[in-house]
Specification:
- This protein is mainly alpha-helical.
- It has one domain.
- It is built from three helices and two strands, in the order βαααβ.
């Protein structure tokens, strides 16, 4: 979802899911039910997004980008 908020260093963004409030809520509900290593961080991120706070979206994007083995599309700034 952060792909809708960032500018990638190589202008390559793969897939975009809108920051829909209902989708964010459903993701939070799902994540709250699992024991996942990044669970607390994911909930922090989704809570920020739920509150329309995208100020950390570059770092958030790159955190998950690295975890997923990203090679293209690293975030360098927020879209204006």
């Amino acid at each position: 979802m952060s792909n809708t908020k960032i500018v990638a260093e190589d202008n390559q963004i793969w897939g975009m899911i809108e920051m829909d409030p209902e989708y964010i809520t459903s993701l939070k509900s799902l994540i709250e039910k699992v024991d996942y290593q990044d669970r607390d961080y994911m909930l922090e991120v989704l809570t920020r997004w739920e509150n329309n706070d995208f100020s950390k979206a570059v770092n958030e994007h790159n955190y998950f980008w690295r975890k997923l083995g990203g090679t293209v599309g690293k975030a360098i700034s927020l879209k204006e």
